[in-house]
Amino acid sequence: MTKKIKIAVVGIGRWGVHLLRNFLQHPTALVVAVVDPNPERLAAVKQQYKLDDVLLTTEWQALKQLTGLEAVVIATPASTHYSLITDALCWGYHVLAEKPLTLDPANSWELCQLAEKQHLHLMVDHTYLFHLAVERGQTVVQSGQLGDLRYGYATRTNLGPVRQDVDALWDLAIHDIAIFNTWLEQKPVKVQATGSVWLQKELADLVWITLTYPDGFQAYIHLCWLNPDKQRRLGVVGSSGSLIFDEMSQSPLTLINGEFEQRGNQFIPVNQNQQVLEINYTEPLGRMCDRFITSILTDTPSVISSGWVGTQLVQILAALTASLNQGGEPIFIDP
Question: What secondary structure letter does DSSP report for 62?
Fold first, then answer.
């Protein structure tokens, strides 16, 4: 009989309910507790998922009384992550945390060190890194099919949801930064950000980002949560073509070939064609949850979404915040 990992889900808001659903469906996970400060939410999920044999509590400390609990899934506001993850690791539980890992690179680094000291797995829910289109895209970019890489761009906009704990930069940018880092197999060495505030004091609603990578490649990102034109689009442009990941499209990954041939003083487009790269869709969140369970069962950390990867992304976001607060001044990031 296959062992089942006993799990507690902490926070069942907009994203936490999706994590709960996936772990309830997982064949080797056993959800034994759900924690949320809102009794009405607890009652709602109890009815929806028939959680008659699951501890439903508003008290975080109640988890210490559970026999055999092995892992905690934390989907609470980012400002609470550091203290909750610290507690969970000290109590001996593996941790899967919603992104971002924390709001401070030093705190994230400390949590990674604590997890290693406790011989526990700390993983961050960077869901896009488990999207098959992102995996396929990394293969295409690294294969050289695009020629010499020139620049990248991404747009992530929608009319809400508007967060009250972090700005649009911390809410949205982490997805596209993670994808660019994965496709390029590099991390930026210089970042810049500018933005505008309309809805809430000191929380930027619109942010423009520039990422500069070690080889000179630059990526430009547009983020906004009050734009009714919903877009989830990212591209990498090379000398021979472009690769587009458009989450809003039924065929999300497209390779668009095309380059210039110089004739005299004219540049003529040639070799133009478009190819949809077929992806056998599997829910990325489900794949991420499965990887967390596998990490525990096999004692193998997740290379693509470990706590250290989450810490690297928090470091980049912190540098972007510094640039945003300084009106777009470039901030250099240590390798």
Answer: G
State the Cα–Cα distance between residues 335 and 326, nearest whole angstrom: 22
Q: Report how far residue 96's alpha carbon sits from residue 108's, in angstroms, rounded to the nearest whole number.
A: 13
Q: Name the DSSP class of 78.
A: G
> 94-133: string of b/e by CB count within 10 Å (b at 16+)?
bbbbbbbbbbebebbbbbbebbeebebbbbbbbbbbbbeb
Q: Residue written as tokens 């499965």?
A: 290
Residues in contact with 165: Cβ distance below 8 Å, sequence separation at least 6, in sequence order: 77, 78, 79
Separation CA 248–CA 256 (nearest Å): 17
In whole angstroms, give the CA distance from residue 99 to residue 75: 8
Q: pLDDT by residue (tens digit) across 150-168?
A: 999 999 999 999 988 889 9
Q: Provide the 3-class DSSP secondary structure of residue 76.
A: coil
**Paired strand residues for 232:** 156
Q: What is the pLDDT of residues 272-302, one digit of tens each?
A: 999 999 998 899 999 999 999 999 999 999 9
